[in-house]
Write a structure and sequence with these properties.
The protein is of the alpha+beta class and 546 residues long. The protein has 2 domains: 316 residues, Periplasmic binding protein-like II (D-Maltodextrin-Binding Protein, domain 2), CATH 3.40.190.10; 216 residues, Dipeptide-binding Protein, Domain 3 (Dipeptide-binding Protein, domain 3, Roll). It has 19 helices and 20 strands. Strands 12, 13, 14, 15, 16, 17 and 18 form a 7-stranded mixed sheet that branches. The protein has a 5-stranded antiparallel sheet with strand order 1-5-6-8-7, with helices on one face. The N terminus is likely disordered.
């Protein structure tokens, strides 16, 4: 099987909104009326690339930080998703092939790619980067997903001095062999920035983790190169004229950092910047502003009330189903989210992984009470259920109150307990919670669900915080991870969705809509408020100012 590296057609901001998701908020994404032909050298784009979809920009180590879509301005990956997250195409890789046993992937790089310092980017740099990611002294976000490469564990354990499954064929060709077929390998590579061996080989991995190199002299191969940064103020990039896909049209991009999203929005409205992330409760104020295009999109972060299934109170599935029937989720989406969220009924949200016969669990108080009675679950005897939470924005606090009130209609007593993020995670890892309000980024590849619900992925080494155990689901998720067939793979995840829709390791709630806003003068702008767990190609080399 071969995958061509053709570049997807460009999508303007207003068109991208329709591609990325429906517009449940009712906000109109307007096509600017002042579209003009783009010209090279059209100046500086000021923006505020921050907020939940992008991550905290105080950490410049691209291998562990969450600013995926920002880092794509000055670093590159082998492959990248299209903005609608429907397919992966090449970035540094011109094309690739997969062997007949579906274990060996051969990537052919574009010719004449250079780093920002003029040095060539070749297969040796890819090999160097993958070894760095798989080195235990250099914790990277993709290390746990790239450990499927043959020999990765031996290398991580120190029993081998190289990863046997990574082989340089020639300066522009590299082979990656996995222990078993791995459908999500491309998704992992779409999150792995290729680093310059010539600049970093002499820095020990444990030193490089916190090195100032990332924020003083980073060398990438993306359309813009790093100029300088002033902590907590701005990051400045300039055009990389030798970018392998063509000289960028913008001369400069300046990312201005605001401590509050409201300040960034005010700067956008005043014309001081041309783009920012917009919080859900702030987006409506942009309606009617003809100078600004609002870009809504799915967060791909399902929210769920996760049960601790080791707690005897939740081990009867009828109790968990009662919790689902007790909630009027539709009213919360309509009244609190103002329609800017979509109900979910399984851990999957992308339509290709959703069967049509899922139970949608519409509000049914009588059914909830009957299920509790059948399970001999007396709310008065059980007492108050503690709901662990850490989101402290006003919308989330309103949601907690609504959940508490709705549960009480079925006689279920729930009390939110606010903790900070560190305490929340610690309670999940140690299993010291009853129920928690949880948001888990799934990203575009469904295999990321496996780490959250596989029986072998329980803490402290895994992320199955609910302690959910189902051998059939384990087998389906494993098969899905190893199935490269684009027609067969969705049917596997649909079956997993059916089972988890009934067994309910948590109360499935919703997936919120997120928003970006861009000045109408920005041309060929591509943005989707996607999760941080995958890089999409926004073709920023073609952005310009009218």
């Amino acid at each position: 099987m071969a995958a061509a590296a053709s570049i997807a057609p460009l999508v303007a901001a207003s068109e991208q909104a329709a591609l990325a998701a429906p517009n449940p908020s009712g906000l109109a994404s307007r096509t600017p009326s002042n579209r003009l032909p783009s010209r090279q050298g059209e100046g500086t784009l000021n923006l505020s690339w921050a907020g939940p979809p992008i991550g905290f920009l105080g950490d410049f180590n691209v291998m562990k930080a969450l600013g995926t879509s920002w880092f794509s301005k000055y670093f590159s990956t082998l492959v990248a998703w299209d903005p609608a997250f429907t397919e992966i195409h090449g970035d540094l890789a011109e094309k690739w092939d997969v062997s007949s046993d579906q274990r060996t992937w051969t990537f052919k790089l574009h010719d004449s790619i250079t780093f920002h310092d003029g040095q060539p980017l070749q297969a040796d740099d890819v090999e160097f980067t993958l070894h760095l990611v798989l080195n235990k002294a250099f914790p990277a976000r993709t290390s746990s997903t790239l450990n499927v490469i043959a020999g990765a564990q031996d290398y991580a354990d120190g029993t081998a001095d190289r990863v046997t499954g990574i082989n340089v064929v020639d300066p522009t060709t590299i082979e990656i062999t996995t222990d078993a077929p791995q459908a999500s390998l491309l998704n992992s590579l779409a999150q792995t920035w290729i680093l310059p061996q010539h600049a970093l080989a002499d820095i020990a991995p444990d030193v490089l983790v916190t090195s100032d190199w990332w924020k003083t002299t980073p060398i990438g191969s993306g359309p813009f190169k790093f100029v300088r940064q002033e902590p907590d103020q701005f990051i400045e990039l300039e055009r990389f004229a030798e970018y392998f896909r063509g000289t960028p049209k913008l001369e400069r991009i300046i990312n201005r950092i605001y401590k509050e999203s409201g300040s960034a929005l005010l700067a956008l409205e005043n014309g001081e910047i041309d783009f920012t992330y917009v919080a859900q409760d702030e987006a409506p104020r942009l309606e009617g502003n003809d100078n600004i295009v609002v870009v809504p999109g799915p967060s791909l972060v399902p929210n769920v009330l996760l049960f601790n299934l080791e707690d005897p109170k939740f081990q009867d599935v009828r109790v968990r189903q009662a919790f689902m029937y007790a909630l009027d989720r539709k009213s919360i989406v309509e009244k609190l989210f103002k329609g800017a969220a979509t109900l979910i009924n399984s851990p999957f949200s992308l339509p290709q992984y959703l069967p049509s016969d899922l139970n949608v669990y519409d509000l049914d108080i009588d059914r909830a009470k009957a299920l509790l009675e059948e399970a001999n679950w007396n709310p008065d005897d059980v007492g108050t259920i503690e709901m662990l939470v850490w989101y402290n924005d006003q919308l989330s606090q309103d949601i907690y109150v609504a959940l508490q009130q709705q549960f009480s209609e079925a006689g279920i007593k729930v009390q939110p307990r606010m903790v900070d993020n560190a305490a929340f995670t610690q309670a999940q890892v140690e299993g010291k919670f009853q129920m928690c309000y949880y948001g888990a980024g799934n990203g575009p590849d469904p295999d990321q669900v496996r780490a959250q619900f596989d029986s072998k992925s329980v803490p402290p080494n895994g992320f199955n915080y609910s302690r959910y155990k189902n051998e059939q689901v384990d087998a389906i998720l494993l098969e899905g991870s190893q199935t490269l067939d684009s027609e067969q793979r969705p049917t596997l995840y649909q079956e997993a969705a059916r089972i988890m829709n009934q067994e309910l390791p948590g109360v499935w709630l919703w997936e919120s809509t997120r928003f970006g806003a861009v000045n109408a003068r920005v041309q060929q702008f591509v943005y989707t408020p996607a999760p941080v767990f995958a890089r999409y190609d926004d073709h920023s080399e073609l952005w310009s100012l009218a």
